[in-house]
User: Fold this.
Amino acid sequence: MIYRLLALNIDGTLLQTNGKIHKSTREAIDYVQQKGIYVTLVTSRSFPSAKKVAKALKIKAPLVTHQGAYIAGVESKPVYVKRINEDITYDTVRFLEALPCQIRLVHEQFSLANKIKLHNHLLAKTVFTTGDPVFYSQQFVSSLSEYLHDQPVTPPKIEVYFEEKRDLKDAKNALGKMFTEIDVIELDSLRVDIVPAGASKLSGLSYLGSQLGIRKSEMVYIGDGLDDIPLIEAAGLGVSMWNADFEVKRASDWVTRSENEHGVAYMVKEHFRKQQPIEFLKKMKIIRK
Assistant:
């Protein structure tokens, strides 16, 4: 099979646990792009955060961000945006404020979160190390619902970090029954992302593929999270990181090394060195476009 697009998750895939990109990973991404293969990022992160990573890797293709609700190029306007409307955002926040959780409205230009004392150390670390660049405004308010009453927001995504696993399960079930306008995506036992109904990493990547004229069977996807499973299963070649959960590995065609063992670079060099450049394949009429 000839692959024409490489899609990558960021956290736990491209980045090492220290938050940095290894030199070998940069070289691997450059190697793939020189062969004429599109490279994109597919992430739950905000667009500004993903854009920072893309610039470091010199990725030119549009990025699938905010769990698929916001797609844009590094230097261009968004090509696709889906938002949670004002009323649903307000009602969702009002419901969540009754639970001990961090609520973060993630807009493409800013984030807005409630002030809450976090007793779970891991949770606190997660919320405050999201990788957002310094120029991305992050504001914390005492009451999100009061703020939204006066200044409505239509975010592509809402992040929620729970203190207790049972609260996540209860909230996910309740929100699913209360609203048809949103989808709740479980990332782990303490975090969910709330997005407009129909938005997902897979729908975002599928949309980008349709814009580029690339079928899912011509894509390679590398990820490590539970929300990466649908993409790993749908891609022509679905790859999981060694550091991924068992469910993610079970869904994949290939398991590469961990993020700290440069798994992306290893996979790329093992596979793509066997594939001729896209322009050569076109000249030989092996592919037509």
Notes: The chain has twelve helices and 14 strands. The two ends are 15 Å apart (CA to CA). The first helix runs from residue 10 to 14. Residues 276 and 289 are 15 Å apart (CA to CA).
